[in-house]
Write a structure and sequence with these properties.
The protein contains 1 helix and 5 strands. With about 90 residues, the protein is an alpha+beta fold. It has one domain. The chain has a 5-stranded antiparallel beta sheet with strand order 1-2-3-4-5, covered by helices on one side. It comes from Cryobacterium roopkundense. This is Fe-S oxidoreductase.
Length: about 90
């Protein structure tokens, strides 16, 4: 059984994650560094699902690992645009 954990955005990544997942984490954190949002209180949450890491950031960004392809998929939340015209 593997236990999950939480850590601060920009802190050291937990040991045992596949390299491709660490690369995905660095990509997300790099993108956020370019945004002028206060992310100082944001945390990552690691959950092991069927032996594979699923990582979620407080903003809803999720990173999932595919062991068959040794790949990581980043899914970011869709930002709603309140100024967008209502077409319905």
């Amino acid at each position: 059984m593997q236990l999950g954990t939480r850590w601060a955005l920009g802190a050291t990544v937990p040991a045992g994650l596949p390299d491709v997942v660490e690369i995905a984490l660095q990509a997300v954190e790099g993108d956020l560094a370019a945004v002028e949002a206060d992310t100082s209180s944001w945390r990552w949450t690691l959950t092991w699902l069927e032996g594979k890491p699923v990582i979620e950031l407080d903003d809803g960004t999720v990173i999932r690992y595919n062991a068959l392809e040794d790949s990581a998929t980043i899914t970011q939340p869709i930002a709603s645009d309140e100024d967008e015209d209502d077409w319905i």
